[in-house]
Amino acid sequence: MAGVLAVCSLAGAQLMPSSTVISSGSGQFSVNARGGISPQSLDLAAGPGMVTLDPALLAVSCERVKAEVLHELNLRDQWRGKIFVVVRPARSANDQIVVVPERFAGNWHSGVELPDAVDRNRFVEAIVRATLLEIANRNAGAQPTEIPEWLVRGMARQLMGASAVKLILPPPRRPEPGGYLNLSRMTTDFSDNPRSADARTRKLNPLAEAVEVLRTNEPLTFEALGWPTEEQLDGANADVFGCSAQLFVSELLKVKRGPECLGAMLSQLPGYLNWQLAFQHAFEPIFKNPLEAEKWWALQLSQFNGRDLLHLMTREESARQLDAVFQFPVQVQIGLAAPMRTDITLQTIIRGWNRARQLEMLKNKIWELGVLRPRVSPECVPLIDQYSQVLQDYYKKRSSSTRPLAGFGASFTQMAEEAATQLDALDVRRADFHKPAPDSLVSALEAAEASVQ
Fold first, then answer.
1. Domain check: are 302 and 321 in the same one?
2. For the segment 289-325, what is each residue's pLDDT rounded down to a tens digit?
3. How far apart are CA 87 and CA 16, in angstroms?
4. Res. 184 pLDDT band, cuts 50 70 90
5. Which residue, 145, 212, 231, 285, has most beta carbons within 10 Å?
6. CA 289 distance to own-chain centroid
7. Does a structural domain hold residue 278?
8. Does the reported pTM lie above 0.90?
9. What order do you get walking across the sheet with 29-34 strand by strand?
């Protein structure tokens, strides 16, 4: 109990005897620790998945985790409450981690108590929890809000799987007898270079670890995610819950305006008795009622079970394969010269071909997109879904005509132009997939790291 009070007390966090207090680059995180890392903690950190927490590097790691959360939710950094992190000597590999909100000076702040040797997934989860609490509590009154467990654990795993930058910076290794300090490489799946091939692969396959767990375990239903039992959150079952939550968060982020809806849900949580009501209100443009959300999740699970997420195409290969779907080679002959091969666009076909040829072509392309969808990189899936929707809508309208050769009336012209305009916009987005993946966070993260050094 004394540790929790020390975490939550601003005075306690800054006036601990013989302690070091380090502020992060943005000033939101204040890291407090006593002395160096003990030999016992170094021994514990040698275990699989464990990392030691150095105060100066920990401040950078916290900023990196926060930056990734904001990036996923398309939010700007407008923090109000501080996050006080107290580091204490580790006693075991499963030490308790405490995250507690406290209100003072007109704002809700959060205290985080961490062992200096900790499992990297549990560390990221703790900082994600504190970050989401601070965002949600900006609009809270006398009582702090509660973040749904699926969002905390799902977002934490999503960051670990999707981020192309190092989230956790470990301290130097223990020196060998008579030797010098050797800087250790980060004990995560990322290399030192965030642009490396390993980092890109990791970023394109954020669900790689989740699919291994869910391949032999049934993913949780919408209801089970919303009302987890103690057994589901602890022990071996915690992995199933965490992986199901990651899949849920990942799919929500892919829907149209999904990140904005999740951000809106966070800000609206203090105004509702439970997260379900805030979710329903924030996602109302997508799910008209809870039943629609449950049906959507059931459909995602069905599609997930049919996808081989460990062998997805890269971003570049996905772009090439999608281009191939929309290549329409034709033979053109001018005069007596030999026929030449050229390509025409789908928009040209929609505007000019007769009804029978159009319907046959549309059926083929809708089928090709359906076959391609399970194999492309996750970031390409929404674009394929939008192409499919445009083609399906146009196919229904075009097939409803009872005139086999219809195609020259005013109604058809308007129908064709609307579909062509939608396809023009999607083609622009498809062209962007041939450009390098955006890495706008790297400069901001490097600046945050430099400010602490």
1. no
2. 888 898 889 888 877 776 655 567 788 888 888 888 8
3. 11
4. very low
5. 145
6. 24
7. yes
8. no
9. 19-23, 29-34, 83-88, 107-115, 98-104
